[in-house]
Amino acid sequence: MKRSLSYMIALVVCIATGLACRPNNDARVQIEYDQVANFTEYKSGFGGSTGAGDGVFIMYRIEKITNTGSQAKTFTFNRNKLSTVTTDKTSNEQFPHENDLLDFVVVELTVQPGETKIKPGCFIKHALTPNPKLHVGALVPLLHQQDQSQPVTLTRSPNDKTTAQIITAVSETLKQTCGI
Q1: Is 150 helix (H, G, I), strand (E, B) or coil?
Q2: Cα(17)–Cα(13) distance, rounded to whole angstroms?
C-alpha cells in the first residue's frame, strides 16, 4: 500500500512538472558487461567454503563504461546500485567475501565527462531465487538504479552468449575467468 501511494505521488509530481520526469538522454551513461561465471559455492583461501543457499553467485565483467553525452557529468559506477533479475526475483545482494577471492574487484569507479573506461574489472552479485538450480548456467541480466538526471543503460556485450559454470569457485579460477 505504501509503495502504491509513493508511486501515485511521484506520478502526480511528474505530470504536474511536465518535462522534469523525462530522463536526460544527453547525460546518459552506457555500461556494457559480460556475465562470465555462475557458481553456487566458493572456497576461501582459509580452507572454508560457503554456498549460495537461496540463489547463485554471479561474476560480471564490466567491458566498457561510456560517459560521453553532450551533457555528461561525473558518473560514479557503484556495483551496489545494480540488481540481478532472475526469472522469479530481483535482488541487490552482495557477495560476502568478494575481496577474499578477487583483487581486481570493481566496487566504485569514477568516470569523468567525455571519458570511456575499458575493462575496469569484475564484481560478484548474489542473485536470489527459490530455484537456484535453474540459474546455474543461466544468463541473469542486471538492472541499474534509476536517476532521471543521469540515466544509465546496461547492455550485454555482443559476445556475451554463455557463462562459465563453476562448481566450486576458488580465487585463481575466478581471476582467470575474469580475464582482466
Answers
A1: coil
A2: 6
